[in-house]
UniProtKB/TrEMBL annotation:
InterPro entries cross-referenced by the UniProt entry: Mechanosensitive_channel_CS (IPR019823), MS_channel (IPR001185), MSC/AndL (IPR037673), MscL_channel (IPR036019)
Membrane-spanning segments: 16-37, 78-96
NCBIfam families: mscL, PRK00567.1-4
Keyword Transport recorded: yes
Gene Ontology annotations for the cellular component aspect, listed alphabetically: plasma membrane
Membrane topology, from the record: Multi-pass membrane protein
MF terms in GO: mechanosensitive monoatomic ion channel activity
Major localization class: membrane
Family the UniProt entry places it in: Belongs to the MscL family.
UniProt entry tagged with the keyword Cell membrane: yes
Full protein name: Large-conductance mechanosensitive channel
Quaternary context: Homopentamer.
Length: 139
């Protein structure tokens, strides 16, 4: 029973739940980014470079022979993956930059000075009494 209770305590910790939510949202975000790259970014880039579809770029190293498939160096898929990565990295960079800007604006907002604790107030009174005693002329 001890292992089950330990696992339960581990599984419901905030960090584990937060990580799971992050992974799920990340997977969904990956689909959005893939669609953005494939459906929005790549068509204009392909048009600019003469209608070349990167995914179709490949070099056949050895032609197919009977049941043996062809050996193909699909460098276009690699180029597409690099472009996907750059776009995702840039999107994440812009998101983090915006979040950091919001955090800086929060930090700049003036905050009230902290109120002194009871101990600090008492020490201040003691200091003031000692100072008043030292300022009295000697008789």
């Amino acid at each position: 029973m001890g292992v089950i209770s330990e696992f339960k305590a581990f599984a419901v910790k905030g960090n584990v739940v937060d990580m799971a939510v992050g992974i799920i949202i990340g997977a969904a975000f990956g689909k959005i980014v893939s669609s953005f790259v494939g459906d929005v970014v790549m068509p204009p880039i392909g048009l600019l470079i003469g209608g070349v579809d990167f995914a179709d770029l490949a070099i056949t190293l050895k032609a197919a022979q009977g049941d043996v498939p062809a050996v193909v160096l699909a460098y276009g898929k690699f180029i597409q993956s690099v472009i996907d990565f750059v776009i995702v990295a840039f999107a994440i960079f812009m998101g983090v930059k915006a979040i950091n800007r919001l955090k800086r604006e929060e930090a700049v907002a003036p905050s009230l000075p902290p109120t002194p604790t009871k101990e600090e107030l008492l020490l201040g009174e003691i200091r003031d009494l000692l100072k008043a005693q030292n300022d009295k002329p000697l008789q």
